[in-house]
Amino acid sequence: MVDFGDADTGDVHREFTRYAQDYPDYAEFILMSYETLSGRKLSRPHIVALAIQDAVYDLREEYFGTGKIELIDQNSHWFSQT
Q1: Contact, 23 vs 30, CB < 8 A?
Q2: In angstroms, what CA-CA distances link 78 with 42, 71, 73?
Q3: Which among 31, 26, 36 is positioned nearest to 15, based on CA atoms?
Q4: pLDDT at 24
Q5: Which of 10, 36, 50, 65 gets the most CB atoms within 10 Å of its CB?
Q6: How far apart are CA 63 and CA 82, in angstroms?
Q7: What pLDDT shows up at residue 8?
Q8: Strand, coil or helix: 80
Q9: 34 CB contacts (<8 Å, ≥6 apart)?
């Protein structure tokens, strides 16, 4: 299953970053299925790097849009010094 909602040319690994983020328990099955059906090998490190890049971008956009990062606000206890 590949989402071609915004069909474009480019790095096929980009299509799989959301699966890695949103469905971590199923991501490997999705990747292996794609590889089997397409005959193409995907790079797991490349997908992870793109997913991290997307997450950092999302955090940046949230901060510049609202002045705060909800994820950090919800988990501020992680950053408190005891």
Answers
A1: yes
A2: 35, 11, 10
A3: 31
A4: 85
A5: 50
A6: 26
A7: 66
A8: coil
A9: 2, 16, 40, 42
What lies within 8 Å, CB to CB, of 79 at 6+ separation is 72
Q: State the Cα–Cα distance between residues 18 and 27, nearest whole angstrom.
A: 9
38 is written with which tokens? 């397409």
Reading the block at residue 69, the tokens are 């990062």
- Look at the pTM and tell me if it is higher than 0.70: no
**3-state helix vs strand vs coil in the chain, percent to 5:** 65, 0, 35
Using CA atoms, how far apart are residues 27 and 68, in angstroms rounded to an integer?
A: 30
What's the pLDDT at 72?
62
Convert the pLDDT of each residue in 5-28 to its tens digit: 666 677 889 888 888 888 889 989
Q: Which stretches of the chain score pLDDT less than 70?
A: 1-8, 69, 71-82
Task: Assess contact for 54 and 62: CB atoms under 8 A.
Answer: no
